[in-house]
């Protein structure tokens, strides 16, 4: 039975959850029909005309393009562009970009492996996601638990991931004293009542809280049902862009330069700062690392490996006696494609994963 593109997307989303992407990025399925069959997948950094032609020759139904070919809003699609051509030929395009950068085992971990970084952590922590849910806890007599629960679920409560009707229930004893004018459904006003109740806890999306509370009130047998609403903080994350760690034993800079060129398959490096001496602490950031030069300096690293930095950031690094090694932008990212293809092939051995032979950095050194 053939696999669908959606099954490959599911695997990609597990390896590089889109929620890890930077807010400005455009990740996920950008072009194509997720229900279409797939037997061949091409992996590339950039989806260029040369790569598009290569994908056509190898009959690839899906292209995983690390850099999103659709980034800014598109106002028109006309013949001659690679996106138009992909749509015309029925080729799907998926981009993981900064989601893969932050993910465990992703782009920056692969680059950190080149240096042999140990005890590594993100160079810049991912911003925690915004709070999106409440926890609702209400107290219901046993005979009405199902009625109240189902009313809240129908209004939008109780969904966690792919699961619905999620709740936790625990029995207990509630107390109340009906004041003058009260009309309790259990017991009598003017005396302290003790009643068996069940605490029903569930989660509620912020945008559905009004509807769920209304459903709770309408279905609850009590005149004044008690309930708590607690904002749920986002879970802490250890994900982030870049990596920083140690080398033990320390490694001479010239030796590291040779290792970087060998592992990345390139012949030249752009280097600012010291070129001699041992490195015991280093940082990496695939692609454009100029935004994280300050973080690397603050982390007191001896060497910072990245794709490119701006002129004044290089000067700042030199002043801090930190070596900056630039490989050119995509040369620092391309190494991750082989690792990603291997991981995808493990979960989907019936699909052929091709590394583009036409994909290359637009710059060369002469």
Q: Name the average pLDDT.
A: 93
Query: Number of DSSP strands?
Result: 19
User: N- to C-terminal separation?
Assistant: 50 Å
Q: Mind describing the biggest β-sheet?
A: 6 strands, mixed
Shape: elongated
- Which range does the strand content fall in? 25-35%
The low-pLDDT segments are none
Radius of gyration: 28 Å
Alpha-beta classification: alpha/beta
Descriptive account of the structure:
It is elongated, with a radius of gyration of 28 Å. The chain is 28% helix and 28% strand. It is α/β, with parallel strands linked by helices. The chain is built from 11 helices and 19 strands. The longest helix has 13 residues, at 335-347. The strands form 5 sheets. A 6-stranded mixed β-sheet has the order 7-14-16-17-18-15. Strands 2-6-5-4-19 form a 5-stranded mixed β-sheet. A 4-stranded antiparallel β-sheet has the order 10-11-9-12.
What is the topology?
Elements: E1 3-4, H1 5-15, E2 28-31, E3 37-38, E4 40-44, H2 49-57, E5 62-65, H3 82-89, E6 92-95, H4 97-102, H5 107-115, E7 118-121, E8 124-125, E9 133-140, H6 145-154, E10 168-177, E11 192-205, H7 209-219, E12 227-231, E13 240-241, E14 243-252, H8 253-264, E15 270-272, E16 278-288, H9 293-298, E17 303-308, H10 311-319, E18 323-326, H11 335-347, E19 352-355
Parallel strand pairs: 4-5, 4-19, 5-6, 16-17, 17-18
Antiparallel strand pairs: 1-3, 2-6, 7-14, 8-13, 9-11, 9-12, 10-11, 14-16, 15-18
